[in-house]
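Field reference: sequence -> structure
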Amino acid sequence: QVDRSEVIKSNLNPVFAKIFTVDYYFEEVQKLRFEVYDSHGQAGVGAHDDDFLGGTECTVGQIVAQKRVTKPLFLKYGKFAGKSTITIISEEISGNNGYVELAFRAKKLDDKDLFSKSDPFLEIYRIDDDRSEQLVYRTEVVKNNLSPIWEPFKVSLNSLCSCEEKRKLRGVVWDYDSRGKHDFIGEFFTTFEEMQKAMGENKVQWDCMNPKYKIKKRNYKNSGVVVLLDLKIHRVYSFLDYIMGGCQIHFTVAIDFTASNGDPRNSCSLHYINPYQPNEYLKALVAVGEICQDYDSDKKFSALGFGARIPPKYEV
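Structure field:
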């Protein structure tokens, strides 16, 4: 098992927020198997008391080539699981390894429950070029609270906005229902560019709007307010970032002179001194050194040896 999604309760058409990161190798056939279970407890998905709803197999190459793959689910022994299907969406993680930490809260949300207050949770969607929406993150549910403060969460910039600050994002607030029929409270639209105004002591807020109420109610203002309390950008710097930032690299080699390499006069030894061509050690030094020398500031390369017996005492 590589990973598992979160559990979505009482829903026959779940959209999972969990993102699975898989290394892609063009030259390899990478087979994947997806299995769906009906969870009955907290022991963990796929436990013995969970019902197997179906599974399917495909390759990473198929998902990458098609970007969106929908496949039927099969029960054991190759039987179809009714009309059940699973849709898998792929996207490349760009070289930008940064991620952002977001902290949201809401104020004065509409009350959707009759005998108690709403149980709100927030979903963030990325709107792609084809106008389709991809779920980026779903917060936890805050019970019986019209002014919830959700736990801060982290998400990669690639997942949030495809590393495009002006890409439109949609936030949706729901009132949680244990039967899966969540009540829509309201929505707002923004961009990561606008979100960045919340860095430091500043805060950014949006009216949480219900389009139906806006049409029907003349004095309708909003269904609450969503506030971005804090935003922190974390960037994981790549090797190239360090080089372009002025980092200097010093190239040093250490050569094994112990007897384990054999007599340098023996053609089977890695240290064999061949009068016609370089030995394996020299080939390795040249292969690595030719690349590293461009990043070495003084072009002076230290060469160290260890394990040699030096005359006249021939001690290591």
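Note: The mean pLDDT is 88.
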